[in-house]
User: Which sequence fits this backbone?
C-alpha cells in the first residue's frame, strides 16, 4: 500500500509554501505531520516535544518489554494531532536564489534555504549557517575567525499573503511550536529543532542560552526557521452541527476550526481539539426549545481512554444523485459513477457512456441515433473567480471596483451616480422601507459593473477563447479583449462588451424587457491543475502505472485495465486513428474508453501539490477558498479524494457563476 500523505510544513524555508510529506511511521515523531502510515493509527501527543502514532491513547500507559503497560503516573497528554493543526507558512515577497542578497525581503526561492545575515552589507540564502565558515571557490571551509553573523532575516510577506490567525500565543522563551505565534508583538516564533521552538526578538544560529544569557558557540545550535500559526479550516458540508452536538451522521461542524471527533460507535462531537482521556462533566443544564444546553460543564481529565478521537469524514456538498444534472458539480454520489455530458445543457452520472444509448422503460437501449456527447466532466475545469478588490456589502456603492462581499451578490449599476450589490436586478423595482416594490417607470439601469481583480490575484489562463455572441460557458473568456463572458442562465453564457439583465436579442438588436433575462454573472476561465508526481509521461503515452502527466492540465484517463493515457479531455467513444501527429480522434458509436481518472503518485518532496489529507479532507488554502454551495473542492477533486462520492467524476459543461462571491476568493 502506498504511503499516506499529510501536509508537512517546512517552516521558514525558501518560498514558504506547504509541501507534501509522507505520513509518520509508528515509533517516529508525528508532531510535524499529524498523519500516520499505519491504517487506523492516529497521531497522539505525548509531550510538547513528542507525538507518536498509535491505535489508541491512555495517559497512564507506557511501552515496556514490547507491550503497553498501565502505571500510576501520567505519561501521555493524549491530544489527537491533525494535519490542519500543523502550521503553514504564507508566501513571501521577492524570493532570492542562493548567493543573491536577500537582505530586503528575507525570502528564499530554493526549498530548505533561509536568509542568513553575513554582515550589515550582505545576507544570503543557505540551508544552514555557521559563523566560522567561508565559501572558497566551490566549497565551505572553516575559518579561525567568525565570518557570518548568522542572524535570520525574517521573511517579508507578499502583499496578498496573510498568516493564519494566532490562537495560542506563547510567552517569550516558551515553546511556541504548536501556536506559531507570540504574545510579544516584537517577537517571532523561531525553530530550534523538531522538539522546540521559542519566541524571541531575533534568531542567531550559533547562540546558546547559558547561565541566563546568550553565549555564542562555534557550531550551529538553532535551525532558526520561522514557525507560523497553523491553519484552521472551515468547510461547507451537509447538516452542520454546533460544538457539543452529535455529528455522527453528517460529520459536519458549524464553527470554523471545529472537527467532528469520534467518541464511540454511537457518538461523535464537534470540537476544536480532542483528548482521549477527557470527559465533559455537567453541573447545570437548560432546556432551550428542543435542545438541551449545558451552561456550567467542563472537561475533566481521567486516567483512562474515553474518546476514540478519530475524525469522521465530512459528507461534501455538491456530489450529484443519479438522474440529476451534474454539469455544475462533476461529482457523483454513487460510487464508481462518472459525470458524462449529454448535451451542452445537461450532464448525468452513469457507470459508463455510449453515445447511441437512451434510457427507456427502466434500462439502457441501443439506438441508431447519437444522443450523448460522452465527454467525462472534470471538476478542476470548473471556473473559479479570482479575488476582487475592495468588496462592498449589499447596499453600499460598488461603482469603483464592482466587487461584492456577500456570496451570490453582483454589482449592478442603478444610475451614473450609484451602483449596488444585489443577487438580482430588475429595472422596474424600488426598495421601499423594507422590501422591493414594482414601479411603473425604470429605476435601475441593471448593467453589471465588472469586478476589478485585486493586486496579486489573477484569472486562470484563457485556453479556448470564444467569439462574441457565442457560448463561452466552457472557456470563460473571449477572443475580443473588450468583451467579457457573461452568464445568461445555466445553459448559456455569451461574450459581450457589457451585460444588462433585462436585455433580450430580438430581430438582430437588443430590446429592453420589464423582467430579468440575463443572470449577468461573470464567467471566468477554469482552473488547470498541475501536480508534481512520480514518473510523468507525455500526452498519449501509457500512464497507468504512475497516473502522472508532464503537460500542465493533462489528466491520466483510463482506457481499460492495461492502458491509460494523458490527455486534457476524454470521450468514451473516441479512438485515435493514424500515427503520431498525423493521427486524429475519430468518433465511434460505442464505448472505447472508461474515462476514469488514474490518481497520480505524489513525489516525496514536490514543490507544488494540490492535495488534501485523507484523514481530514483539509485542502490547501490555495485551493480551498469558499465556493458556491453546489461546488466541490478543487483540491480534493484533483486527486479524487472526496468522502462519500465518486473519485472518478470530473468536469462541467455549463460553468457556475462564481462572480465576486466573497472577499476571500482567490
Assistant:
Amino acid at each position: 500500500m502506498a504511503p499516506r500523505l499529510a501536509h508537512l510544513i517546512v517552516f521558514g524555508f525558501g518560498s514558504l509554501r506547504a509541501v507534501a510529506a509522507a505520513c509518520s511511521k509508528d515509533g517516529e515523531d508525528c508532531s510535524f505531520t499529524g498523519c500516520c502510515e499505519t491504517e487506523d493509527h492516529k497521531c497522539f501527543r505525548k509531550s510538547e516535544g513528542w507525538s507518536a502514532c498509535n491505535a489508541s491513547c491512555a495517559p497512564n500507559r507506557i511501552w515496556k518489554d514490547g507491550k503497553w503497560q498501565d502505571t500510576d503516573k501520567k505519561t501521555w497528554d493524549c491530544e489527537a494531532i491533525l494535519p490542519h493543526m500543523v502550521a503553514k507558512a504564507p508566501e513571501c515577497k521577492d524570493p532570492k536564489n542562493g548567493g543573491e542578497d536577500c537582505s530586503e525581503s528575507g525570502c528564499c526561492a530554493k526549498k530548505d534555504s533561509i536568509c542568513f545575515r553575513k554582515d550589515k552589507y550582505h545576507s544570503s540564502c543557505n540551508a544552514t549557517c555557521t559563523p566560522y565558515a567561508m565559501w572558497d571557490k566551490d566549497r565551505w571551509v572553516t575559518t579561525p575567525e567568525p565570518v557570518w553573523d548568522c542572524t535570520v532575516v525574517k521573511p517579508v510577506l507578499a502583499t496578498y499573503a496573510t498568516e493564519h490567525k494566532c490562537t495560542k500565543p506563547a510567552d517569550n522563551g516558551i515553546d511556541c511550536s504548536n501556536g506559531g505565534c507570540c504574545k510579544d508583538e516584537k517577537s517571532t516564533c523561531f525553530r530550534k529543532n523538531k522538539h522546540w521552538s521559542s519566541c524571541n526578538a531575533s534568531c542567531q544560529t550559533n547562540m546558546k542560552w547559558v547561565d541566563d544569557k546568550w553565549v555564542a558557540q562555534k557550531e550551529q545550535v538553532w535551525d532558526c526557521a520561522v514557525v507560523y500559526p497553523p491553519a484552521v479550516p472551515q468547510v461547507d458540508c451537509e447538516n452542520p452541527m454546533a460544538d457539543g452536538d452529535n455529528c455522527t451522521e453528517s460529520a459536519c461542524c458549524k464553527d470554523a476550526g471545529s472537527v467532528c471527533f469520534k467518541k464511540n460507535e454511537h457518538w461523535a462531537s464537534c470540537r476544536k481539539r480532542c483528548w482521549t482521556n477527557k470527559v465533559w462533566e455537567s453541573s447545570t443544564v437548560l432546556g432551550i426549545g428542543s435542545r438541551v444546553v449545558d451552561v456550567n460543564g467542563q472537561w475533566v481529565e481521567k486516567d483512562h481512554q474515553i474518546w476514540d478521537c478519530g475524525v469522521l469524514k465530512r459528507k461534501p456538498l455538491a456530489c450529484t444523485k443519479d438522474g440529476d444534472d451534474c454539469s455544475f458539480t462533476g461529482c457523483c454520489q454513487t460510487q464508481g459513477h462518472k459525470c458524462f455530458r449529454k448535451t451542452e445543457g445537461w450532464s448525468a452520472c452513469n457507470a459508463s457512456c455510449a453515445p447511441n444509448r437512451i434510457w427507456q422503460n427502466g434500462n439502457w437501449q441501443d439506438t441508431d441515433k447519437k444522443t450523448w456527447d460522452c465527454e467525462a466532466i472534470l471538476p478542476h475545469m470548473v471556473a473559479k473567480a479570482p479575488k476582487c478588490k475592495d468588496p462592498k456589502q449589499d447596499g453600499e456603492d460598488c461603482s469603483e471596483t464592482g466587487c461584492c462581499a456577500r456570496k451570490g451578490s453582483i454589482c449592478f449599476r442603478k444610475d451614473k451616480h450609484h451602483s449596488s450589490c444585489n443577487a438580482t436586478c430588475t429595472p422596474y423595482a424600488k426598495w421601499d422601507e423594507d422590501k422591493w416594490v414594482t414601479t411603473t417607470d425604470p429605476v435601475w439601469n441593471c448593467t453589471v459593473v465588472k469586478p476589478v481583480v485585486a493586486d496579486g490575484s489573477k484569472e486562470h489562463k484563457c485556453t479556448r477563447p470564444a467569439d462574441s455572441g457565442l457560448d463561452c460557458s466552457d472557456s470563460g473568456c473571449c477572443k475580443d479583449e473588450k468583451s467579457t463572458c457573461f452568464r445568461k442562465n445555466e445553459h448559456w453564457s455569451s461574450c459581450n462588451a457589457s451585460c444588462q439583465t433585462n436585455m433580450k436579442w430580438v430581430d438582430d438588436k437588443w430590446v429592453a424587457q420589464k423582467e430579468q433575462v440575463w443572470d449577468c454573472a461573470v464567467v471566468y476561465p477554469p482552473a488547470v491543475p498541475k501536480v508534481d508526481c512520480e514518473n510523468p509521461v507525455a500526452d498519449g503515452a501509457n500512464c497507468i502505472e504512475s497516473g502522472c502527466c508532464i503537460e500542465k492540465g493533462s489528466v491520466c484517463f483510463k482506457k481499460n485495465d492495461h492502458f491509460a493515457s494523458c490527455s486534457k479531455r476524454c470521450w468514451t467513444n473516441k479512438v485515435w486513428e493514424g500515427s503520431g501527429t498525423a493521427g486524429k480522434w475519430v468518433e465511434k458509436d460505442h464505448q472505447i474508453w472508461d474515462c476514469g481518472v488514474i490518481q497520480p503518485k505524489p513525489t516525496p518532496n514536490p514543490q507544488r501539490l494540490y492535495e488534501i489529507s485523507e484523514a481530514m479532507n483539509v485542502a490547501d488554502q490555495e485551493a480551498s477558498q469558499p465556493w458556491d454551495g453546489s461546488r466541490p473542492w478543487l483540491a480534493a477533486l484533483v486527486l479524487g479524494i472526496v468522502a462519500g462520492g465518486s473519485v472518478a467524476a470530473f468536469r462541467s459543461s455549463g460553468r457556475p457563476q462564481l462572480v465576486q462571491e466573497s472577499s476571500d476568493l482567490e
Notes: The longest strand covers residues 42-47. Residues 634-638 form the longest helix (5 residues). The radius of gyration is 28 Å.
